[in-house]
Amino acid sequence: MVYASRAVYEHSGGELSLGSLDMLTGLGKDDSTAITVVVPSRLAILTTVPRITLPLTEVLKNSQGVARGCLSVADWNTGTVHNIPLVWNFMSNLGGCTDIGEIFWRLEDKQAVFQLEDGWFRESSLGNYNAQANKKSILVGSSGIGKSTLLCSMAFYLVIKYKKNVLVYRHLTNVFGNCLFILGTKATTSCNLQCKDAKLTDIYDELNEQQGISKVWLLLDGFHYREVPEGLEAFRMLATSQQVLLKSQERLDTYCWLLPCWLKNNLQLMGRMIYKFDDEEMNEWYYYSGGSVREFTLPTAESIREAIDGNVSNLSCGLNSSKTKPCLE
Questions:
Q1: What are the tens digits of pLDDT across the range 250-294?
Q2: Structure pTM?
Q3: Which residue from 119, 70, 132 is spatially nearest to 97, judged by alpha carbons?
Q4: Given CA atoms 136, 141, 143, 145 in this order, what sign does their dihedral have?
Q5: Do 168 and 91 touch, CB atoms closer than 8 A?
């Protein structure tokens, strides 16, 4: 607002301003014709951001049984078979998690769980610095060696032991596409097949706003590190079969853990304990499958060869098209 003088401004109570430029003629030349300019205070405009509708939840069936199956993951003995039928049943329509609800637990699996848990939860102290504290974890390994099974087991473990709300987003190659399932601290679940990246981002942001980022954990399964969807870069764990080359700046908040392929003796122990394979069959199947437990457990040697040929063919296609879309990070 522009006023002819201070006296006019005070007399008008701020209501009589000079309405046009013509009225300014002759004013402002000296102290006697000084113009008073008042800048109106900015009005605060309150906007309400509409909340998205979160997926419907349901109570996890037999949650106590699930708890018994997963609460002791970090303490599982190695070289033995552990039963997780309830987790297997829950995961059967979400991309799967083991073939028949049983896990042969390797030393390498136990070491990975220890590394993940230690990095996430151990507090640094004098002389005992936690170099992985608050860092994102990337579990790297060849296809078919159990990364997804380990990730899904950790999801239930985080909910049951540490009371985290966990979102697991899986990149599946079947007709379902990507799928999402949410595990809540109150033994609730929510599933969303054919979930889109943008929808998950909205759900993740909303849960963070409601519950706090420290209580909402995002686990990604099957994505390439360089192709993690926008808005999901703050994941806590990623399981990938693709090579990950971290830049120096990325190492400040991210680290990789290699899950090795299976040793022959572990495959044979698992074959005897779970699948009742005989030694002659297993020698032939190991020859074709190498250290991949997924291929090793196929029913025939021919099916193993076909699966390996398919994997090699897919890799070749990816390398041939690497100029436009790199296969490896």
A1: 999 999 999 999 999 999 999 999 999 999 889 999 998 888 999
A2: 0.78
A3: 70
A4: negative
A5: no
